[in-house]
Amino acid sequence: MANHRPSPSKIELCQLTHLYLSDKASFLAVKEIDLRVAEGEFVCLVGPSGCGKTTLLSLIAGLERPSAGSIKIDGTTITGTSPRVGYMLQQDYLFGWRTIEQNVMLGLEIQGIRTKESEEYTLHLLEEMELADFRHSYPAQLSGGMRQRVALVRTLACKPEILLLDEPFSALDHQTKLKLEDLVVSTLRRQQKTAILVTHDLTEAVAMADRIFILAKNPGRIHKEFVVPEELRLALPFEARNHESFSALFHQVWKEMEAINHVHE
Ligand SMILES: Nc1ncnc2c1ncn2[C@@H]1O[C@H](COP(=O)(O)OP(=O)(O)OP(=O)(O)O)[C@@H](O)[C@H]1O
C-alpha cells in the first residue's frame, strides 16, 4: 500500500506548517505536512476534531497563508485564492432573497465570467442535478439535500479544476447523503476534477476516496495513508459499500482512528 505515489501532482503540499497567532498566544495547527494529490484523484482527510483538516483546506484554498512550507498547484506556488479552486462547505450559504438560478449564477457574476455560454453550462448542471424545475424557486422552498445540490452547481459553474469539500453531507439525512455521494463522485469523475474531502464519517471516506489520510493532532500531522482497493475506487459509493473489501478497509481505518483517539484521551 505504501508505494502508491501517483504523479504528476495536481496539488503538492511541501512541509506545510501553520501557526495561528493571536495577541496572547500561538497555536501550531498543522506541522510539516507533505502530501501530493494527482490530477483527477479523490482524497479524503479524516481525523479527530482539531487535527487541522479545515486549516489544510483553508490553506489550499488560499484563504490562509502558511507559516512555513508551500502549496503548489500544477507545480506553481499559490499566493492567494484562485478560481481554479472551488470550496464547498457543510452549510450551503445560499442567499435567501435570490432564486436558485440567481444563486447558481453568483460565482460567475463575482468572477466577471457570466456569459451566454457559462449560463448555459450552469443551467445544464442544474438539469443534471435534477433542479431545473426549481430554478425560479427560493432556497427556503427546497430540502437540505436540494440546497446542497444547488451549492454544488454554484461551485461547479465556475469550472474549478480542484474541489475542496468540507463535510458537505454531514447535515443531511442518511438516504439523501448516500444519493448525493453517488452524484458528486459520478460528476467529479466525469469532469476529471481533483477533490479533497474532509469528513468525520469513515464509511463515507472508504466509499468515496481513492486515498484516505488519517491526521493526528497536537500538532496536526499525517498519521497514516490508506490506498483504497481498485474495486472500491471503480464503483460508485453506494455500490462500494456492498463490496467485500469495504468492511476490511473500514475496520483498518477504524482501528487506526481508535488508536490515535486513545492517545489523545
Ligand atoms: N482562527 C483560529 N485561531 C486560532 N486557532 C485556530 C483557528 N482556527 C482553528 N484553530 C485551531 O487549530 C486547530 C485545528 O483546527 P481545524 O478547524 O483546522 O481542525 P479540524 O480538524 O477541521 O476540526 P473539526 O473536525 O472539529 O472541524 C484547532 O485546535 C483549532 O482550535
From TrEMBL:
One of its GO terms (molecular function) is ATP binding. The keyword Zinc does not apply. InterPro entries: AAA+_ATPase, ABC_transporter-like_ATP-bd, ABC_transporter-like_CS, ABC_transporter_ATP-bind, P-loop_NTPase. Residues 14-242 form the ABC transporter domain. Transmembrane segments: none annotated. Keywords: ATP-binding, Nucleotide-binding, Transport. The keyword Nucleotide-binding applies. This is ABC transporter ATP-binding protein.
